[in-house]
Design a protein that fits this description.
With about 220 residues, the protein is mostly helical. The chain has a domain at about 35-170 and about 190-200. It has helices at about 5-20, 40-45, 50-85, 90-145, 165-175, 195-200, and strands spanning about 35-40, 150. Strands 1-2 form a two-stranded parallel ribbon.
Length: about 220
């Protein structure tokens, strides 16, 4: 999902406080506007560090998806074998095998959910570092130009040449922060019983939405139990 526009506007509003200009009071004349324009979404999409974070996320997602697919295929074979044994095994023996299959299925399902959240949290943390660095660079440029108004590109219908600092921010960001290491979240054992996986899983506050478009771990492909 794209970063909500209101959060970008909030960040740009906080930028003026970061630069350090005092707010005007009724007793003070309002200074003539010195405006700069910036496209934060473009920075978070086109900078070298943002592309590098996306690359790391894609690689980890692909690697883990292959592991999940292999376990799904194994479970499908087990499920098919159980269906063939339904009328051959004694009920008690069949129920034991079904309980084992159910536990392995639940472990896979839970493990995918935990890993998805962990990867997205790592992605969010990395992009937060990128965004904070970019905002500091914007603040530096605003101070250099003595700008007292920073406007997001999405709010602009027309601009005079030289007001948009997006490419300058990207250039400085590429030089200052070319790489951010994506943290490696703990990956649960996909074959462990689901109850054990739940006990050792990191706390979750619900679904985590990335700040900029990024890959998301797919859910298991097995059909209804």
């Amino acid at each position: 999902m794209a970063r909500p526009r209101r959060l970008v506007l909030t960040a740009l509003a906080a930028l003026l406080l970061l630069v350090g200009w005092p707010a005007a009071t009724p007793a003070q004349p309002v200074a003539a506007p010195v405006i700069i324009i910036v496209d934060v979404q473009q920075i978070l999409r086109d900078s070298l560090v943002a592309k590098d974070v996306q690359r790391q996320m894609s690689q980890r997602t692909e690697t883990y998806t292959k592991a999940v697919t292999a376990r799904e295929n194994a479970l499908r074979k087990t499920q098919a074998e159980l269906e063939r044994q339904r009328n051959v095994l004694a009920p008690d023996a069949f129920n034991v095998k079904m309980r084992d299959f159910q536990q392995r299925y639940d472990a896979l399902d839970h493990g995918v959910q935990v890993t998805r959240q962990g990867l997205q949290q790592a992605y969010n943390d990395a992009m937060t570092k990128v965004e904070n660095t970019a905002l500091q660079i914007i603040a530096d440029i605003a101070a250099e130009r003595k700008a007292n108004l920073v406007v997001t590109k999405a709010a602009v219908l027309f601009e005079a040449p030289g007001l948009d600092i997006t490419q300058e921010v990207i250039r400085r960001l590429d030089a200052k922060l070319p790489h951010v290491v994506l943290a490696a979240p703990r990956q649960p054992d996909l074959d462990a019983p689901a109850s054990d996986a739940i006990e050792t899983a990191p706390p979750s506050n619900g679904a985590i939405t990335p700040r900029a478009p990024g890959p998301v771990m797919p859910a298991p492909l097995l059909g209804p139990r």
